[in-house]
Amino acid sequence: MGERRRARERRRAREFEAFTAGAAGRLLHAAALLTGEPAGRPAPVAEELLLVALARTYAGWDRLCGEDPYELARRELAASFAHTAWRHRRPRGGLLARLTPRERLVLVLRLHEDVAEEQTAAQLGLPAERVSTLCRHAVAELRSHGPEPATALP
Q1: Interaxial angle between packed helices 2-35 and 44-59, expressed in degrees from 0 to 180 and rounded to the nearest 10
Q2: Lowest-confidence range among 73-77, 91-95, 100-104?
Q3: Domain assignment present for 129
Q4: Is 116 among the domain residues?
Q5: How many domains are contained in the chain?
């Protein structure tokens, strides 16, 4: 019995390692957008957020039953961010720095991750109309300020 369990644990670890090798980059990018950390720089807060989400994903790995592990990891990332949104009120100058944490979360889920409006609403516990309003407001806010000025090349 012990050998079977060890073999199952090894298989689980290999599957999870293969998943993280393929998905961690995209999830880290989503986490950096959520936390508001600038692209191209170290993102310790986004890495911490991703680590929590991946740990929770690994804990639920055996219950996937054919479900997409990326979907589970994305839900865990969004839930972890929503749970700690108070820490992310002042973004660190990233692309979405002008937005509130909730606006960043909706925008990342809807536009970056291409999650349906109804699914986003259900995940966040909001009415679909509120998700739509938050998304429209966030996009309008980003458009109203235009692109960030580019730095001069040396």
Answers
A1: 150
A2: 91-95
A3: yes
A4: yes
A5: 1
Helix (H, G, I), strand (E, B) or coil at 68: coil
pLDDT band at 50 (very low <50, low <70, confident <90, very high): very high
Residue of 137, 102, 139, 138 whose CA lies nearest to 120: 102
pTM score, whole prediction: 0.79
Smallest Cα–Cα separation from 48: which of 88, 104, 3? 88
Q: Which domain holds residue 91?
A: 2-145
- 3-state SS track over the chain: CHHHHHHHHHHHHHHHHHHHHHHHHHHHHHHHHHHCCCCCCCCHHHHHHHHHHHHHHHHCHHHCCCCCHHHHHHHHHHHHHHHCHHHHCCCCCCCCCCCCHHHHHHHHHHHHCCCCHHHHHHHHCCCHHHHHHHHHHHHHHHHHHCCCCCCCCC
In a domain, 153, yes or no: no
How far apart are the C-alpha atoms of 151 and 154, rounded to whole Å? Answer: 9
Q: Identify whether 43 is part of a domain.
A: yes
From CA 148, how far away is CA 45, in angstroms rounded?
22
